[in-house]
Amino acid sequence: RDINKEETDMSVMLSKGEKVDLTKNNPTLSKIRVGLGWDTNQYDGEADFDLDASVFMLKANSKVGSDKDFVFYGNLAHPSQSVVHTGDNRTGEGDGDDETIKVELSKVPADYEKLVVVVTIYDADKRLQNFGMVSNAYIRLIDENNGEEILRYDLSEDFSTQTALVIGEIYKHGNDWKFNAVGSGYNGGLAQLCSAYGIEAN
Predict the structure, then answer these.
(1) Residues with Cβ < 8 Å from 77, sequence gap 6 or more?
(2) How far is residue 170's CA from residue 30's CA, in Å, rounded to a whole number?
(3) What is the model's pTM?
(4) Average pLDDT in the 47-65 region?
(5) Cα–Cα distance between 173 and 43 in angstroms, integer?
(6) Which stretches within 69-146 are classed as H helix?
(7) Which pLDDT value is given to residue 3?
(8) Residue 195: in which H helix or E strand, if any?
(9) What is the dihedral of CA 89, 92, 96, 99, to 10 degrees?
(10) Cβ atoms of residues 54 and 151 within 8 Å
(11) How far is it, in rounded angstroms, from Cα 101 to Cα 85?
């Protein structure tokens, strides 16, 4: 279902599958901060838990144009500077986002239709880790100009075997941008997502 964000200062809380307009009622919105956060549960493994947020920038065929359209810890900025990953910094700001990605909608090249935000577990298979060991995962979008939270989506499902999550999509709808709360889990980790979006993972 679509949610219309009225002229309000309140952040919209989304459920899985819900969509909300970003720019229709706020045409000056361009600079967005995407904050992602999570908690790791107690588990018996020895290895650290390293979760990584990434963005796939897709064209009309739902594929990337090149490997540079995958913004992650190994490629922190798209050549257009429209999507910039701030790295593993923890600023402790607000509710304490674990990773932050900055998106400038006006800089997204015209032939890109969708920005897919994903979270994966580094070396999940080797470390025997999955998202069943993670709780309180969320994504929130903040208007960079005024610092106000636009929307928030808390993932409430138990992804007990999955090692990759597509959390949400920022996508073009006509001349406007919208957000879709996806919340889908995948077993094949980052490699499965890379393959699905047209990148050959090493």
Answers:
(1) 71, 83, 84, 85
(2) 12
(3) 0.90
(4) 91
(5) 42
(6) 124-127
(7) 56
(8) helix 189-196
(9) -10
(10) no
(11) 4
